[in-house]
């Protein structure tokens, strides 16, 4: 099964908690703090594996977690850091944040890898908080939480040349004729239901990848047929071979086919029409092909909507006539054509209005629920809370000072908070005291 898009959840490991401990050795009655730091949580890393061809491995396994770091120990011992979780993906995978719809990474090289969820750092042990005024602090940090994300993976084939055209125009037959690929071929529409890749190797040592994309039909860009599933694979190609059946066997107008396929490309992404395109007249071994080819060339030459008439080449994949000139012309155009940028999804800056952007960057936000409780939210504030060990009074007082320094107290007063009102952060509730 060819799978080219999935949505998964990834969770990095939390950092280990710092330790509150003191030296308890003979002849050392006042040994001082000796609590070690927690270990780093494991990150989630996506790495290219050139041996993979689809995202099938993610179809039934959609949750990936890295391990947490170990807690700190006595005698200043640091907890063991967790191993990173390596997730292997095929070459050509685009990783998109499902919440913000922004592209995180585009893995197009064999050695590419990217950290998608950063592991939390380990919390500091009480050895870090000793001061002349407080030489024996009962204060340590919890480990920082690991990042958690929901991401979409989209596989876009890394092919230099894309074969496009209506069903049964000979795309799979051409791919089999010029490469060692063995696509399924049948005398009926939609024989090909998954993209196929093949490599064309020239005698001078050069080569290029060809993708046979399942047949487009009219309305594909709007979701009709198979085309919409695989149009995105055209985005990485540099040259398009537009195959058109000129045999007349299907009783279709070749020129009309040319216009309809290009219309679908334009609806999906108008930039696709900027790619060099060779019109490949197929099935030239059949009786009426030569006459229909002459008519097609005439209509293309008279089409005033085209900036320049496309290159037209005739082939027969069965007899192999015209294949060598077609390959040479394709290589010639490839040598002159740079890679096209892959169309990204909407940028976060365009999706959010100014108030939403401010909320994302603010240290904290204050709301009031239906019961009258003041609810504090915000990534920075919540992170500080999660790293506070509420089992120790000194840690709780430190968190209160941090909130005051961030301006939370003043903001609550401005909102109308009164002495004795309940304030909630995450699952922790306390009273507001003037």
UniProtKB/TrEMBL annotation:
Per UniProt, where does GTP bind? 165-172, 190-194, 212-215, 282-285, 316-318
Q: Which GO terms describe its molecular function?
A: GTP binding; GTPase activity; magnesium ion binding
Cite the OBG-type G domain residue spans from the record: 159-335
Q: What class of enzyme is it?
A: hydrolase
Q: Which residues bind Mg(2+)?
A: 172, 192
> Where does the record say this protein resides?
Cytoplasm
Domain OCT: from-to ranges = 356-434
**One GO CC term of this entry?**
cytoplasm
Obg domain location, by residue? 1-158
The protein's matches in Pfam families, at most eight in alphabetical order, are given as: DUF1967 (PF09269), GTP1_OBG (PF01018), MMR_HSR1 (PF01926)
Q: Which EC numbers does the record give?
A: 3.6.5.-
Decide whether keyword RNA-binding is in the record: no
Q: Keyword annotations for this protein?
A: Cytoplasm, GTP-binding, Hydrolase, Magnesium, Metal-binding, Nucleotide-binding
Location, primary (coarse class): cytoplasm
Q: Does the keyword Cell membrane apply?
A: no
- What InterPro entries does the database record attribute to this sequence? G_OBG, GTP-bd, GTP-bd_Obg/CgtA, GTP-bd_prot_GTP1/OBG_C_sf, GTP1-OBG_CS, GTP1_OBG_dom, GTP1_OBG_dom_sf, OBG_GTPase
What does the subunit comment say?
Monomer.
The family assignment reads: Belongs to the TRAFAC class OBG-HflX-like GTPase superfamily. OBG GTPase family.
Record function comment:
An essential GTPase which binds GTP, GDP and possibly (p)ppGpp with moderate affinity, with high nucleotide exchange rates and a fairly low GTP hydrolysis rate. Plays a role in control of the cell cycle, stress response, ribosome biogenesis and in those bacteria that undergo differentiation, in morphogenesis control.
Q: What is this protein called?
A: GTPase Obg
- The record lists the organism as Secundilactobacillus silagei JCM 19001
* Name of the gene encoding the protein in the UniProt record: obg
């Amino acid at each position: 099964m060819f799978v080219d898009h999935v949505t998964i959840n990834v969770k990095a490991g939390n950092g280990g908690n710092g330790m509150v401990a003191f030296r308890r050795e003979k002849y050392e009655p006042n040994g001082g703090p000796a609590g070690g730091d927690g270990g780093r949580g494991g990150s989630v890393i996506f790495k290219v594996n050139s041996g993979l061809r689809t995202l099938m491995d993610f179809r039934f396994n959609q949750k990936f977690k890295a391990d947490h770091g170990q807690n700190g120990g006595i005698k200043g011992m640091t907890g063991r850091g967790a191993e990173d979780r390596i997730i292997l993906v095929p070459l050509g995978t685009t990783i998109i944040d499902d919440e913000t719809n922004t592209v995180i990474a585009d893995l197009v090289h064999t050695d590419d890898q990217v950290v998608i969820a950063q592991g939390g750092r380990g919390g500091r042990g009480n050895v870090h908080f000793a001061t002349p005024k407080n030489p024996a602090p009962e204060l340590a940090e919890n480990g920082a939480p690991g990042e958690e994300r929901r991401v979409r993976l989209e596989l876009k084939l890394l092919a230099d040349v894309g074969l496009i055209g209506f069903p049964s125009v000979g795309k799979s037959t051409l791919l089999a004729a010029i490469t060692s690929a063995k696509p399924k071929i049948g005398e009926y529409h939609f024989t090909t239901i998954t993209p196929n890749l093949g490599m064309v190797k020239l005698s001078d040592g050069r080569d290029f990848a060809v993708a046979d994309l399942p047949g487009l039909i009219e309305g594909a860009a709007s979701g009709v047929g198979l085309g919409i599933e695989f149009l995105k694979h055209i985005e990485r190609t540099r040259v398009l071979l537009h195959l058109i059946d000129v045999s007349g066997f299907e009783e279709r107008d070749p020129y009309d086919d040319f216009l309809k396929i290009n219309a679908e490309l334009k609806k999906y992404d108008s930039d696709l029409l900027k790619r060099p395109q060779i019109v490949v007249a197929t099935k030239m071994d059949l009786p009426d092909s030569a006459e229909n080819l002459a008519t097609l060339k005439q209509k293309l030459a008279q089409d005033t909507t085209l900036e320049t008439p496309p290159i037209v080449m005739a082939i027969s994949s069965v007899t192999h006539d015209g294949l060598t000139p077609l390959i040479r012309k394709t290589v010639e155009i490839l040598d002159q054509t740079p890679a096209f940028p892959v169309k990204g999804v909407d940028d976060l800056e365009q999706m959010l209005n100014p108030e939403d952007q401010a909320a994302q960057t603010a240290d904290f936000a204050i709301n009031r629920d239906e019961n009258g409780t003041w609810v504090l939210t915000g990534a920075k504030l919540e992170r500080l809370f999660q790293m506070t060990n509420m089992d120790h009074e000194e840690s709780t007082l430190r968190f209160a000072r941090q909130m005051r320094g961030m301006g939370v107290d003043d903001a609550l007063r401005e909102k109308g908070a009164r002495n004795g009102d309940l304030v909630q952060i995450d699952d922790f509730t306390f009273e507001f005291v003037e």
